[in-house]
């Protein structure tokens, strides 16, 4: 059986078996914006030991293979099919959550201002930044990048690919910006742990932010490590 090794890229490992995300999230290994890094590069950067992570990944991988879980390896699909999936699964969800959370984040800031103003002011500001970044980013992908990739998928025209390259560089840089905001949000919320005695809305907001973060990790991984890799444009 194939094994996971330290020189594999993080994005490649997630493509081999999606449940590796759990291990990466647990060790805060950034497989989305950092999906082009190898496992050894990522652990060195974080200053953590390689062996426990590697053992855990191989253990999970064995379990994944033996359980015969059905999953779609998007590397074997067309770019157009993957774009449809990203739009239906991730863009629609992100837009809805940003809208819902916008009201809820303001609400908990007002209700819990007396005891938690320091943390909630930071959450409010960071969420606001994330919302602006993502709303613009999703529209840019939908209006500029994705239609060009769909065109290239049909025509394989080199001029189209040259235009795509420029947008991919910009898109990956925007992913990095969103990733930085998410890291900061996780830090100020202590990984979305609500303080003792928090009300239902407070807990709901942190759960929703946590779920949005995990969804964005998968969304960005699919773009950086699968969709853009399909184009073989070599920008790294
Ligand atoms: Fe996207
Ligand atoms: Fe994106």
- Number-wise, the strands total 0
Radius of gyration: 19 Å
Query: Which ligands, by name, code or SMILES, are bound?
Result: fe (ii) ion
- Choose one word for the global shape: globular
Helical fraction: over 70%
SSE string: HHHHHHHH
| Alpha-beta classification | mainly alpha
Question: What's the N-to-C terminus distance?
Answer: 30 Å
Low-confidence parts: none
Strand content: under 5%
Number of domains: 2
Biggest sheet layout: none
Mean pLDDT: 95
Number of helices: 8
Summarize the structure.
This protein is mostly helical and 236 residues long. The chain has helices at residues 10-16, 20-26, 39-46, 50-66, 79-111, 113-155, 158-188, 200-230.
